[in-house]
Amino acid sequence: MMRALIVVDIQNDFCQGGALEVRDGDQVVPVANDTMKKFSLVVATQDWHPANHGSFAANHPWRRPGNVIQLNGLEQILWPIHCVQGSFGAEFVRELDTSLIQKVFVKGTDPQIDSYSCFFDNAHLKDTGLGDYLKENGVDEVYILGLALDYCVRYSVLDALELGFKTYLVADGCRGVNLKEGDSDKAISEMQEKGAIIVRSTEIKS
Ligand code: VGL
Ligand code: ZN
Fold first, then answer.
1. pTM above 0.85?
2. Which of 15, 83, 107, 121 is catalytic?
3. In the prediction, which pLDDT does 11 show?
4. What domains sit in the chain, N to C, each tagged with a CATH number?
C-alpha cells in the first residue's frame, strides 16, 4: 500500500481577500500543514490561468461572474479573474508549508478550456501528468483536501476514483464556494456515493 496526499489549490485568490474568495478558505491551511507531515508523498496543485482564460467573465463582453456560457461546446460557469499565472493571487497562501510538497501540478493553462479536476481538463482530453506521476510512484491510495470543495476538490475526487485509486476526502481540510446553498453537502454525498471515503484529518495515521 502506498498513499499520497493531494493538496488542491490553496492559493491566495481562494482565501480571504482573494478574487474568488471561498468562505473560511484560510482555515484549511493548518489542516493541510498537519496532514502533510503524515505523508511521505505530497503533491499540490495550482489553478494557473493565462490572462485570456475563457472562464473569466471579463473576457466575454456583457457577461458577469456566475453567468453560464458555452465554451467550445462545454457548459462553463464564468468566474471573476483569478489565479492568473505569476500573479500574487495564484501563489500558495504564505502560511502553507510548501517545503512538505514534492511536486506541483498546474491546471487550467489552456485558455480554451477550464480544468476543475487536478487530473484532466473538463472535457477529459488532456491530462496534467498527475495520474501518471502517482502510478509511477506506486501510489494506490490518495487523500485529497483543499479548495474549493464543490469544484476542484469534487472533480479531482471523482477522477481519482475513475482512475482506480482508493480515494479519501479529508472533509475538515476543505471549504466550498456554495454558489447555491448546500452545494458542498451535495458534493460530499455525490463523492461518497461514487465510492470516496470521507474522513477527518485527525483520523489519519502518520
Ligand atoms: C476553482 C472555480 C474556478 C477551484 C478554480 O479551485 O475550485 N473553482 N477555478
Ligand atoms: Zn479557475
1. yes
2. 107
3. 98
4. 3-50+82-203 (3.40.50.850)
